[in-house]
Amino acid sequence: MKFAQEFRKSLQQEGYPQKWIDSAVPYGQLKKCLKKVTKELQEIGLDKDTLSQLTASQRDPSAVAFHYHLDGKAADSKHFRPRLTFFIHIKDGVVVDAELTPPTRDFLKQIASKTVDVEDTSATHDPGQANPAADPNGAPHVPHSEEEPVPIQQVEVPLVFDSEFFEILQTDVSNLDALQEEEQKRLGKEITLLGREINQATIPSKGRRARGDLETWRNIFELYLDARIFFSTRESDHGSRTSTQAVEQLRWFQDQVLSKKLIHGLKLENSRQAYSRFLNMNALLLQILKFQEINNLAVTKILKKFDKRTSLGVSREFPVTIKSHRLLAGSVAKDLCAQMSNDLISVVPQLDDYLCPICFAVAYWPVRLDCEHVFCSRCLVKMCRKGERFCPLCRADVILRAGLEHFDSARAAFLREYFPKEVKEKIRANERERNREIFGPDYSDSLCSVM
Ligand SMILES: [Zn+2]
Ligand SMILES: [Zn+2]
Fold first, then answer.
1. Which end of the chain is more exposed for a tag (fewer CB within 10 A), N or C?
2. How far away, in angstroms, is 235 Cα from ligand 2 center?
């Protein structure tokens, strides 16, 4: 299937809001404009073969023939102006460059004669200078010859449709960026709101059902983090996911939630509603990602087509020149995922965030050292006994300075409220360990006597 068709079809099939479809990359319009660009260049003898031949000849730095440059520093900072500048040798009023075809030479001669007083650089080569090819705006190098060096003239070729093409493309990319920003803000607000609601509903002191739902949300979010749906922080597949991968991961997550019967575990009506809103959010995020991908692809395709027809090399220059923080940078999914973990997932405390970095059990009683690192009191006692002075995480000299005032009682209360099971288990483990120290390694408490 041709890309234009494929693009149109996927815009129709995915159920995007009309507003999105209206701002999608105007691929057909750009294609039509590209025809005019090609024709315009052909008329002045700059067909793609001539230009590609000239590009090939530029590998020799002494024979820079032209620069095509998307000028990002135009007066209106939102738009840029493409500039096609030729460096030609003119001798006795005649363009002498061998690579150029006769009609191109004629054309360049014509505009050169009009712009002679403005653009004439007449720079002759100074052998002491650095290679001018390194500086795209510098005066080009004139080949050595026994005769007097031929002066070089810089000629800018006016291109009407070329400017029009980039005007359309740039305007659309800016519009798409604005649209994505708007969607990002809207979804971001919803994420924060949902986080607050779940937080309110699951305060443990509100009763048994709140505590049960808190536990279920914790399991749901744990699975969600494991799924790494839109973004992976794992070393093996670090980075943003494609929409195809995201669909797969989202499906895995939903299957897991179903097979573990977690939705049944949500007893409060508020929690159930929150879960379906959470799923809708993910579906919307997926849609944003898909829309971004297909438009991004459309930009890549049209620029490739542009280069194929003109040999001007824009597919390299355009993405660098254009200022697109969202569409081309693809940061929306990443940003929203970050917000999801800050404003939503973190409202249901995860045990991983409260473990002692030494024994990997819940850090109870929590001792907060002067360096702000928190350990369980048991591990700290053992470090003191061994005469260790430095925090194992940051190497600050803080351990021997720890005293009663370093007990973090606010955190202890929080842990008792949010992780009652884990705290009880840790207290028992601490007691067992202490008793073994007192009564010897064969000591076993009643709980373990069965073993
Ligand atoms: Zn510990
Ligand atoms: Zn530390």
1. C
2. 25
- Of 348, 373, 392, the residue that ends a domain is 348
How crowded is residue 41: how many other Cβ atoms within 10 Å of its Cβ?
23
| Any domain includes 34 | no
Rg for the chain (alpha carbons), in Å?
Answer: 34
Give the distance (Å) from ligand 1 centre to CA of residue 398.
Answer: 16
In a domain, 65, yes or no: yes
pLDDT at residue 329 in the model: 72
Number of separate domains in the chain: 3
Residue 358 near residue 375, CB atoms below 8 Å: yes
User: Is the predicted pLDDT of residue 176 greater than 80, yes or no?
Assistant: yes
Domain residues for 317? 163-348
Q: What residues form DSSP beta bridges with 84?
A: 68, 157
Q: For residue range 378-406, what is the model confidence (pLDDT) as tens digits?
A: 999 999 999 999 999 999 999 999 989 99
Helix (H, G, I), strand (E, B) or coil at 152: strand
Among 105, 63, 88, smallest CA distance to 155 is for 88
Helix (H) / strand (E) containing 157: strand 152-157
Q: How far is the CA of 444 from the centre of ligand 1 (A)?
A: 21
Residue 261 lies in a domain: yes
Does residue 250 contact residue 284 with C-beta atoms inside 8 Å?
no
Residue 191 in any domain: the answer is yes
Summarised one tens digit per residue, pLDDT across range 413-433 is 999 999 999 999 999 999 999
Structure tokens at 159: 């291109």
Half-sphere exposure (CA, 13 Å, Cβ side) for 206?
Answer: 13
- Residue 357 alpha carbon to ligand 1 centre in Å: 6
**Looking at the structure, do residues 181 and 286 belong to the same domain, yes or no?**
yes
Q: Is 25 helix (H, G, I), strand (E, B) or coil?
A: coil
Q: What percent of the chain has pLDDT over 90?
A: 49
CA-CA-CA-CA torsion sign (351, 354, 357, 362):
negative
How far apart, in whole angstroms, are the C-alpha atoms of residue 235 and residue 246? 17
Residue 3's identity, in one-letter code, is: F
Give the Å distance between the CA of 112 and the centre of ligand 1. 80
